[in-house]
Write the structure tokens for this entry.
Amino acid sequence: MRRRALLSAAALGAVAWPAPALAAKRRPDVIVEPGTSIQSVVDAAPAGALTPYTIGLRPGVHRGQVIVPADKTFLEFRGLGRGPRDVVIADDRANGTLKPDGTPWGTSGSASVTLSGADFRATNLTFANLFDEAAHPEITNRQAVAVLTRADRLIFDRVRFVGNQDTLYVNSTAAGVIARAYFRDCYVEGDVDFIFGRATAVFARCQIHSLNRGSTPNGYVTAPSTDLTNPHGFLFSRCRLTSDAPAGTVYLGRPWHPSNDPNAVGQTIIRESWIGEHIGATPWSDFGTWSWRDARFAEYRNYGLGALVTADRPQLTREQAAANEIADFLGDWQVSCGA
């Protein structure tokens, strides 16, 4: 397994989040040391909050599954280290890992952190799923989520997401329900479908790193399941798509149709981004019987050795690009989140 150098480093709501610089100056409402349950602190946070409540996290590895329920609004997890690597929130279960009752956790249940409270914010930390594939050959369902989002208006600022298969699950409460997440200056790592789901997710100036699985293909960056009624799925703007995998062995994405839902017409747009040579001339893949050509996949003005322009790489026109900016994806929330 590709093991990261991880543990060695030690609204539109009633009230909008303050600008990033001002938010960082707010003193945490509570500070958590490694070894103290983050879940217990979340449980004690005010319910239905209309103003930010900040949980400061001291450097180190904070182990254990964390669930932020829907009534815990305006929470912030803020890492208090020098950089995102210093504070790690981690768990290590996979889809096929068994619960105490002998049943598997499933993909959603594998999440190290589940976020169902609106207006959540995370800053300067790492979310990880440390499930070790090589140590558990008996587990064949290896989806292991680091973060599952279900709520609207979520901000991730200088955050790392570390895992293998299904690292970042950006979702909503139901098909057709809009849930927006904004990722700014973040790092996302994985191999198979490691950014997936039906949420509207904007990645601005992020590094998207595909691991080398030593196979062909080596993986898929995205697996969107955007509902047909939602014009906005995944947008990658001015990002860097990197990998140590051989040239042409990684796909940009494939269309996920949960339970064969025909209305899950996934959207991934990658624009003005640097793409490494791990991406080949045909960067999109079918998903079972579902053709990538029926999905909403497109690029615009990308560059780098993997940013080829071929008949199998749909490109936005200038007019289409003008209608697919960050502001279009975030809507009237963009000012509040500092986009």
The chain has six helices and 23 strands. Residues 27 and 54 are 8 Å apart (CA to CA). Residues 1-14 have pLDDT under 50 and may be disordered.
